[in-house]
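This part of the workshop introduces the protein records we will be handling. A record pairs a protein's sequence with a compact description of its fold. Backbone structure tokens are a discrete shorthand for how the chain folds in space. The question running through the whole workshop is how a given chain folds. The record below serves as our worked example for the rest of this section.
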Amino acid sequence: MNLNTEEFINQLKSSILTSFGKLNPMAYPKLSKISINVGCGAGANKKYDTKDREAIAKYLEKITGQKAALISSNKSISGFKLRAGEVVGVKVTLRGKNMYDFLIKLIYVALPRTRDFRGLSAKHVDKSGNYSLGIKSSTIFPEVGFDAEVSFGLQVNFVFENTTTDQTETLVKLLKLPIV
């Protein structure tokens, strides 16, 4: 598969133009950003320690090609044994070329490596017209590999502009995500 980012974007734009019959090109639905989130399990269960959180941030940087931001809690919650300022997650927001590079890697490299993969559900569209995808194991990405220090799940959110839920379902199919 020799598909670079510019060819992918041009194919996507032409397929959007043919499928949505609007006159104004600024009114076409488009992918605005991709947000990748990893919960680090702070609180009562203390799933990951500080070294593991740094490893998760490092792997997320390798996967996306962009520096990951550590997310800390704003206030203490005694029921969850959570203190203010404690790291509870890691996130990356991708836009532009990095976003499309990650999308190509996700579609053509990572998702086919998923165990017992039968496709993605089209029902993960929210009321705002965004698509959310949960990945149980980060080992499907070649940068992490199967011999990683720590395995983690991640949430991938596709944020669209100028869409309704019906248009998002069509746009997700045009992005060539393996929808069943």
Summary: The mean pLDDT is 84. The CA atoms of residues 64 and 102 lie 6 Å apart. The radius of gyration is 18 Å.
